[in-house]
Amino acid sequence: MVEETVWEDHETCDHSYDRRCHKSYTTTYTSQQEEECDEVFRKICYIEMVDIATNVSTQVCRKPLVKDCDVDGETVCRTEYQSECWSKQIPHEVEDDVVSCETVEDEKCEDVTEGYTTTKRCQKWPRQVCEVTKQKMTKYTTMTGCNKEPTELCAPRGCGFKEGPEECHDEVKTVISEKPEEECMIEPQKQCKHVTKLVPQLQEVEECVNVPKEICTRSRTNPKKVKKPVIKNWCYTPSAETGLDNRK
User: What one-character-per-residue DSSP string does 196-227 give?
Assistant: First the structure.
């Protein structure tokens, strides 16, 4: 029997956490004022008076001078100035109010109860509805005037002249008048305004997590003395020196 020391093995574990962190990027939005421009078009018009020629029928009247005697003799001619009067219609384009009316009928109904029955009685009456619209119309202005026109008169010597009956005839004359003309042009114009827009940007964010960790240690405790059977073999080499030589 051999006496040996025997130990008890114990394992002790400690639990803890390791904090591990890493960086990531998240998208955030910030508001920002920006100028936004658009191209608009503005219409610019102006009115110019243009001279136009118009043929106008003119009535010309005059009282010619005639001799006031019936004698014969030497004919003498001379130049006299006679008044020649005229009247003409000058056209003008104007925008006039035109009233158009129509007659409509209004109807009003009401329930009338007679005994145990109810009937609907209606009445109608006319009503005039008018509408005013703008229309371009041509109106004429009468213009009159007189001119002294030279006339050669011939009569015997000693005769005078007197006004004869009035004579009228139509003449076509060219009249210069003004007509408004509108001319327009388109002008581009830049129109700007401030608008608020969300601008994305990356922001660095640190994220951390707790990782569980286990640490174990082994120890030997509670030693004990115990006896164990042991078989021991003693081995040797026979020799003369040792006196253990079996051959002698």
Answer: EEEEEEEEEEEEEEEEEEEEEEEEEEEEEEEE
